[in-house]
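Cross-posting from the modeling subforum.

Setting up a comparison between two proteins and wanted a second pair of eyes on the formatting. Protein 1 (sequence, then structure tokens):
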Amino acid sequence: MPHDLTSLDHLDQEQLWDARAAASYDTPGTGMEAPDVLGPTVDRLADLAGDGRVLELAVGTGRVGIPLARRGISVTGIEISRHMIARLREKVSDADLPVVQGDMASTRVPGEFSLVYLVYNTIGNLLTQDAQVECFRNAAAHLRPGGRFVIELWVPQLQQGAPGVPALVGAVEDGYLLVDTLDTATQRLMSHHVRFGEGRSATVGRSPHRYVWPSELDLMARLAGMALESRDADWRGAPFTSESGSHVSVYRTASDV
């Protein structure tokens, strides 16, 4: 396994999501916060929440939680990085969106919720299968009977890599290059984010992840007492097929009725 797949393992998530990461995370009006990306996300989550309380795991700087709360929905967040929480607090108060600092796989928030959600590939930040299973169990423990857990995640595109080639190009954009080095035996990868500046200057950021297959997520849900209710290719409800590069999966707990 290439050395750099494990070189960041000693860092915890709060160290990875430090002040510099928090300061550069928001992209108002573009990228993850472009209206055509954020709008359908918030619309779908609001519909799934109904009139119940909502919990966002890894709420970050409030990209999704804040617009959802502004629709009158009661949103609470769990976030491990104090730097991300501080950035969120620049935008909304604790009364508008309370946040508990802690690990999304183990931190508990009082009360029951109709919806728990985890967006934008974030379950991959948990680097072992055991931790990801515990995340499902933690989500289920927060849900009322009949409540839903929603995960947005990319589908591993390993067929794009030739045998013996240990890296995949994830994105090529103006001023940005993403290269993932991976180990298929452990389902671990290291994302290398290269951002180009003036002239020959460039900065490189790296983050470790564990990729998860949709069927593996379904088994994790069963272990936590949930079942798959629906799977779409995106937040607008496009059909999920073998060609889909990502999915939005909705799991549901058993109802008392």
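Protein 2 (same layout):
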Amino acid sequence: MEGVMVVVAHNERATLRVGDVFLKVDSDQARIDVEVEAMRLAPVPTPEVLWRKPPVLAIAAVPGQALGRLGEPSPASPAAWAAAGAAIRKLHDAPLPPWAGKKLVGLDAELERECAWLVDSGVLPADLVDRNREIAEAAIRPWTPVFMHGDLQVTHIFTDGDEVTGVIDWSEAAPGDPLFDLASLTLGHEECLGDLLAGYGTDVDRDVIRAWWSLRSLLASRWLIEHGFDPSLPGCEFDVLKSRM
């Protein structure tokens, strides 16, 4: 062991890496309950739970490398992205987890509030926010719930060659919108969307995925700023919003 690496940390939770073990410290035990149960139910490769002693969950590292990182070209092959799409489809086809998911009721009000904050605080110009808000509204629509990962960032799917070796960070898993998962994974990697959908294997409304890119970026920006993250870094949320202009 060379030391302890802080993977992510803010006032809600922290993740540390010690050798090949990840230690997740979370004050919300219900969130950890969801993560453990979701990994047990998901029909895709997930990390091994080593032990749990609240507020800490220890899980084993998964082999392979992440599909990519925001702001950097993905090192994964088109076949690896297609394999990720097939894994997500398998998850979405599985029985729904037995707990409630996030509701879209009130999402339009949240969008209005966050857009106003971005403009009033001088964080982003009004025309950029208005254009993305117009695009984002297409994501607020009826949908059939699936077993959704809920936080399927590009760093959360690992592959080795063209095979998915692990999907990590399940604390947001719940019944939800399948296109939210697909949009989360391709945020900032629009060039990989076709390969992902080739593996997902069903007709998907790409305009709704693009709407989720805008909606997710608008809703997340204030939280990221207030928790010490920078959405203005290359390839991150602000670049995603600017690319819609």
